[in-house]
Amino acid sequence: MKLLFVLPEYPPSYGGGIGSFYGALLPALIAQGHEVDLLLGSAFVHGHDGYTLDGINITVLTTERLERNLEAFEHYRMLPELRRYLAAAWALFEQAKDYGPYDVVEVVDWGMMFVPWVLDGLQPTIVHMHGSSGQIDFRDPSPSGALQGHMMRMLEAATLRNTTALHTHSIANQKEWASITEQKVLNLPPPLIVGESPGNRRSGGKGLVVGRIQKWKGPTVLCEALQILGSQAPEVTWAGRDTRFGEKGSSMDEYLARTYHDVWRKKVKPIGEIAPSDVLRIQAEAGFVIVPSLWDVYNLTAVEAMGAGAVVVCSTGAGAVDLIEHGVNGFAFPADDPRALADTIRAVMALTAGERDAISAAARDTVTRQLAPEVIAKRKVRAYEKTMDAFVGRDVDEWVRAAVSPATSGDGGLAFLDYQPLRDLLGYTGSRIVSKLGITKR
User: Fold this and answer.
1) What is the value of pTM for the model shown?
2) Which top CATH class is 2-191+376-404?
3) CATH topology classification for 207-371
4) Strands of the 56-60 sheet, one edge to the other
């Protein structure tokens, strides 16, 4: 089978779960005799040299194609993120025409990369749902980007209702997209490469969180749980980059330091983003790993920690909870419930060495059996074959097609300003100038 994957990231340079997911899956497909090509790029990744890794030919989106398509989406100038997403998606689609043909194309939902493939409707296309841009914005909206977020979600829903097949890797996300698109969504767990056993742990020790310092990753839930524990609260390392919060110029780390000044940077120690190899090391060394997410399509760091033999405390808001049998191979607690998290941390810290060893062994056994890349690859291939057998071309509604296709506005994309009161425009422009110049009002 000849397969094309269109992705925004892939090893060795990646910063999220998409890179981890396909870094394990694609080599397993190659090992099973399939031919795999990868077109790499996004609104923010382009212009690099192509390369070969694990037997995969990797081509990178050219900057020239992206810039040309940005011009074709000038009518979305007022929504700059959406504009860049659509421009990159169409640029990748154009570049893919230089290669192939392919039996199946798999694209991801993030960055609306699926749009031109769905509109094309001429070849079997899988859209794997890792966490769409609209989904993420819904959980962590930008105060100044409400219109953009709503537009992304409406366009995602309208377009995805016409795709050949939808895949995801958690029960909760499967249900969410089945409801939104009124389509069947296949749930396949993520592949995971499990390394050598790091050995047994002997104490409760310190806690660890791996993930961006972001609202929906649950840092406020953790802080409130540690406040409840008071003097019993353990020290918790938080590994992951800071993100914006609230108005422009503010960050989540700063917000947490102000709001939870007795906990954040005192009991919870943010150490910034670290390399994937270092993540595995600190997971293996941690007394326990916490996944406090309010929402996460999956959270691959949870199962990576299980593979490292860690005792994992996972929120029901993260899809990885699908694998956890409470008290047997890890612990689960209700999402957005600080008191439940506090109680669970207290129980984990009270485990005997023998109990910890048993949970560690059970966690490794679970992910080794259920998430083996060769097993997931075979299940993926069966799904590809079914998609090919059932494939029929689709005609997408012209309203939807027009909304997400390149067009030329002829007005530079700024004509919408003609409908705004001049007084408002001048007032806002003045405020922008003051902000840019760093002038403080007295």
Assistant:
1) 0.91
2) alpha beta
3) Rossmann fold (3.40.50)
4) 51-53, 56-60, 35-40, 2-7, 104-108, 125-129, 165-168, 185-187
